[in-house]
Amino acid sequence: MHATTLAQAESPARNRTTSYLSALAPLGAVATAALIFAVFVSLYGHDPIKVFTYIFEGGFGSGFAWQDTLSRAAPLILVGLAVAIPAQAGMVVIGGEGALVAGGLAAAIVTLPFAGYPALPMQLLMLVAGVLFGAVWFGLVGALRQWRGLNETISSLLLVYIALAIFHQLVEGVLRDPASLDKPSTHPIDAGYMLPAIPGTYIHIGLLIAVGMAVLAFVFIRFTTWGFALRVVGGSDRVARMIGLKVDRWIIGAAAAGGGMAGLAGAIEVAAVQGTANSSLHVGYGYSGILVAFLSRHHPLAVIPVAILIGGIQASGSLLQRRLGLPDATVLVLQGIIFVCVLVGDAVIRNHKENGRA
Amino acid sequence: MDPTSIGWLTLPLAILAGAIRVSTPFIFVSLGECITEKSGRINLGLEGNLVLGAMAAYAVSYLTGSPWLGVLVAGIAGMLFGTLHGLLCSVRRVNDTAIGISLMVLGTGLAFFWGKPFIEPKAPSLPTIGLGFWSDIPQIRSALEINALFFLGIALAFALQVVFTRTGWGLMLRTVGDSEDAARALGFKVRTVRILATSAGGFLAGVGGSFLSLSYPGSWSEGLSSGQGIMAVALVIFARWNPIRALWASLLFGGAGAIGPALQGMGVTGFYYLFNAAPYFLTLVIMIASTSRAQPFTDAPGELSLHR
Amino acid sequence: MRAITLDLVGMTKRFGSLTALDAVSLKVRAGSVHALLGENGAGKSTLVKCLVGFHQPDDGSILVDGKPQAIATPKDADTLGIGMVYQHFTLVPSMTVAENLVASQARLPAYIDWGANLARLRSLLSTMPFHIPLDVRASQLSAGEKQKAELIKQLYLGRRLLILDEPTSVLTPDEAKEVLGFVRQLTDTGALSVILITHKFDEVTRYADDVTILRKGAACRTGRVQDLSTTEMAEAMIGHALERKDARTRTATGTAPLLSIERLTAIGDIGLPAVKEVSLKVHRSEIVGVAGVSGNGQKELVEALMGQRERTGRIEVSGSEFSGSRRQLADLGVYGLPQEPLRNACVPRMSLKENMALRNFDRPPIARSVFVDWKALAAQAVALVGKFRVKASGLDAEMNTLSGGNVQRAVLARELTNDVRVLIASNPTFGLDFKACEETHDRIVNARNNGAAVLLLSEDLDELFDLADRIVVMSEGSLVYEVETASATKQIVGQHMAGAH
User: How high is the ipTM of this complex?
Assistant: First the structure.
């Protein structure tokens, strides 16, 4: 209808090709990465087909594999959102590991004074505590950026080390359960307060919470005026100010929301898997979240399948080691290659789009 | 009085010795990052170069028995990886920060993959220079057993300052980093200069890594690095892109990082983890104090993407 | 004679389907100033970029002193003694003037002996009619000093042909006279030939010997300056006869101040006050023009007014204190037309239709409670795009895929459709072609006639004299002079811009 008012500067056919291309780009990038990885493992005398088969088997080949993959996917979705949500406001926050341990520790201790209460309020309390602590941790990153001009990538990384130091100091000091001998831990939470499994499976309910959060984030960003405002702030802070948006609040809020997601991931790990806070809490989920977010191009819904894919690849590491004698770092190499290929592929597509006009 | 007891001097001496040991890798990585950032690119992935360098140095030292050859190979490994970063970032519209993160993942992955067989064996370490020969006190002697790489790092900082201010290459590097328009108008090859600068930065990060595996802590393991490569970026901002200040900053960091182990050596273990994080606290606090909302990064090269 | 004779024959350059240069031929006589006139996009910069080795012509030849030369890189141009002073300066901000000069040498020395170099530079400077400090960072020079430093750099490099790209756009009239006078002196002695890109006709008539006018990539007129009238040149540039400019009707200026600024102070990028206690009132149906040389606080003033920069002081709109919140912007009708609209008024990576809704996405009919009604949003965009004839490949096209003129029309549509009571415009026609310029001017006057108070900041004195009812001059962060346009002269305004007060 408005075709008459909009002159066709570009041919529609070309337009369509570009949009197909940008949809296919991540797949192409992953395929390229798989090819490079295949060459890499063949150099070490391994049959790439076999390697891929084991990766598939270890990640998705059996009920047990799926259970492992999906249990990993739950925190990965959340730490992916921890990068993807601040990215909507134009930030590259990559210290999710810090917010994760902050949230995990908070969840581990918040119910300790309360024994014998009904489970549901205690479970909610743990999750909320995790969200709050994670939010404060990242909120600090946003505030430092807005108030002191401190680059959020750098400050969030520094805060990871600081968070880990505080975490260990507390867990091995005042909060330590004297009964935890070889692995210093906090007092275990009441077994009755642990998050249940999804009915009929062995996968904890954290997966559903994570998926719910991703959907919520998507709806917020895509359909609400707040999401619109957030994207304006992320797109141009000058213009956001010109149209009267309170940029500081949006930036700090987006950072805090991301931190809340990472904190929630920590809380779920504690409340559904570990039952206590100890060094098993930081196994690098925070860093994997960066990969998940970039692979899904910071799209909250795309985070879900990408987290499952990465969870599956990570889950397959031990199988590769058992069957082929490949070091468990093999899956790290694969992730690194995928990461690089996706970034470069994205840039190539955007250049192609750019050249399309003129 | 027991001649081997040095009483209250134990702590400052331990911190001094620790500062020298801990700061050496920082000196190399931060000088490397300094070169890269002067060209207008940021390499957040030096952690990858560092770990790769540590692995390569250890493996070569073990296989050939020559730790210095290990240092050289570590540098070359870091350089190749730096060149990869430089080439990838030359694709238009690639985000150098993100590429850095991805190469950090890839670099550590490759290092762990290739380094797996070298976790067990013991490789020859780098020799040290005993500057404590004048003293009979063993603590002083051992504190002043200083690795030659430390002196190399100090010399390098001053050399870089001369290169930046008094050579044609230095002016070209700074031009490229500060104003791409100016560089193009003068006919400088912006892309080539940046790739070379990233390679050089990678080389130094690799050498810094070799210190970790061949001197202190002195063995190869997957938990070897505690983020020295990541810290380099913060250090360079902190040093406001000046190699001499980067040297001082590294020493300061080393000193802060040595407090925890030094206290532990004296039997004070109360806040071990917090003291270990002292360098990170210190950086954060100093960066908060030295930046401001209106002018976040004075002296930053104009083409740097940190510079908003 | 050192100066170069330059012949360009049949220069053609295509970018994809676009022919940026269409068989352009011209001759620069040794020791002459050859003016290049043309609108934005007429091909002036493409032509000179071929001369300094940034572009390769698809066809045509360059003859230097009668000999054909291939200029593949800036180094080749350098070897031939051809240099250019760019409109956007190419001094390296963090380096000192001396470092900049040394870095520009064709053969960079391996080791720099600063003692010897500084001595050589000082003796060169002593032959110049103006002074530049050698040990000051380029970022700390004023625009005028930068321009002079660029000129010194080119002479230091021993140029025999110099291209000047709108060299006076950041200078006061007196500084312009000084710089171009010196250039003229050099050409007269036969040391230099000059190509002068400009859009100021008085510079052409005063300083140039020959002129070539480009339109749509072709040289449509070329000849001696003395043989052409300014009207002929202007018509050749635009491609049709000039309309009478002062045909705009104007309503009477009101007496009620709509925008009132009191003691506004804002800190600049380097931490010093860039706007110092500025007080100003703009009335209903009035355009107040702010004149000034670039870099005297205008940018900071606009940013402070638009909420992009922290400030102290009081701003009132229609009598109530203005803080710049979304509610106030809408209720009080405050709108803006910044320069470089793609960067300063649009979110480049968001779509056209989203950009059209930046002012009202959170109000009905586009907002339904907290949700965006995408249908209503698209409908609004269709209406605005149709009314202001914005051309794009679709409503979902990213803003940064639109051409400059269409971005400007989209911004005009968004900012000027509603009930505008205060309009802040800053160099609103910077970089636009003639048609988009005229349209923007008409719309601004239109807003004024409908009762808006307009604050118009411009570096283009002609634009201010053409549009403003009253002119104030900004110099070093303060308002130093005020005059009704009817009784103003460019010369006196120019003197105040230069700081003579």
Answer: 0.91
